[in-house]
Amino acid sequence: MKLILLSGGSGKRLWPLSNDSRSKQFLKVLAGPEDRLESMVQRVWRQLEQVGLQSSAIVATSRSQVDILHNQIGHDVPVVMEPERRDTFPAIALAVSYIHSELKAGENEAVAVLPVDSYVEDHFFSKVLQLQRMVEGGGADLALIGVEPTFPSAKYGYIVPEEGGDKTAEFRKVSHFHEKPVETVAAELIARGALWNCGVFAFRIGWLVRQIEQLQFPTDYSELKGRYEELPKISFDQQIVEKTGNIAVLPYDGSWKDLGTWNTLTEEMDTPLIGKGTISVDSENTHLINELDIPVAILGVPNAVVAVSPDGVLVSDKAASPRLKEVLTFDQRLMYEECPWGWYRVLDYKRYGEETEMLTKRVSIAAGRKIRSHYHKRRQEVWTILFGEGEVTVGGETRAVRAGDVVTIAPLVRHGIRAVSELELVEVQTGSEVTDEDIWEREE
């Protein structure tokens, strides 16, 4: 069986720690092995290894998340990169075409799809393995995992089994779906045996290949990728699941959570404090996550979450935190990003009059990594090496640098840097425009 991990999202619900390049699944706030913090994607990847599914998995993700994904779970992880974000049906279709035409998987082989941001117990993944038998044996076109509800939630979709079926059977035939009902309706659905839809399902490769062909799209990976923008921008549920009649669901009676909001995420954190700060004794059930080097003090504020990052500061009552999108009405540049070579954090930005902007970054480059040769048209840069050793190339000349050295780079001059040891520098950009769009690697 092959496995497709869906890694997407725009990074709004866990602002300010999440952004367009660092979505919620990449936040290192969960307790991991050896007292280390790990992210949701790292946790899922570790759990897959424990049940022998890691070697069968590929990750479907967007261009903006490839670097951080490789940084967190390894550069050898197979990735299918979407040319643009177009919802879950196009992403799954592209991944299946990769498995079919590039990996040469047989049409009767099962493929399971699951999100990378679910918080589940280890034995959940043994349930994923059970889906293989149902779809490969021809018992169902689609096989889903449904979570036994613990309360009538209005936040989740429900899978409703057929009435009169054997409730003790391993799999149950699905009647229909009900998306995010009000609590009274959710309670009625649960009484009828409905299950939470956790977004995990399986099918045969050939079955989905036929669905793609019926839409008159190629199933060859390279050809489909070239026409990706033509695929309908729609969820897999709407395009495929809701139009499929032969669906079975496998009940799962265990812990499952969608850690999509600050109140649900903090429930699974082993410590109320990450980063520099203090929380008073009378601030019960309050969490502080601080990514900056300045201290934060919380006094007499119970049941709250305080999140501090280069992108901003959030102070919210936990119960109100799911409404975060209501107040995120502003746009700003990315203030923190993980890159193939390391990471950077924006320290300061200022505009001087109509013609000049200034941006200051703290840049960290991992040992042996490099920022490739490039140039800028609208700005100059000044690099001050803080610590470590490296090699800088400016205008075709290469020299060694170490702590205390200063490098000045004029507009239109090619430059790059390689870290011999872990290296940090402060980069000051000054010019008419200081944006990531003004980065050029090739001559026009």
Automatic annotation (TrEMBL):
Domain Cupin type-2, residue spans: 363-426
Coiled coil: none
GO function term, MF aspect, one: mannose-1-phosphate guanylyltransferase (GTP) activity
SUPFAM superfamilies hit by this protein: Nucleotide-diphospho-sugar transferases, RmlC-like cupins
UniProt-listed InterPro entries: Cupin_2 (IPR013096), Mannose-6P_isomerase_type2 (IPR051161), NTP_transferase_dom (IPR005835), Nucleotide-diphossugar_trans (IPR029044), RmlC-like_jellyroll (IPR014710), RmlC_Cupin_sf (IPR011051)
GO BP, sorted A to Z: GDP-mannose biosynthetic process
Domain of life: Bacteria
Domain Nucleotidyl transferase span(s) in chain numbering: 4-269
Pfam family name, one: Cupin_2
Protein name: Cupin domain-containing protein
The organism of origin for this protein: Cohnella xylanilytica
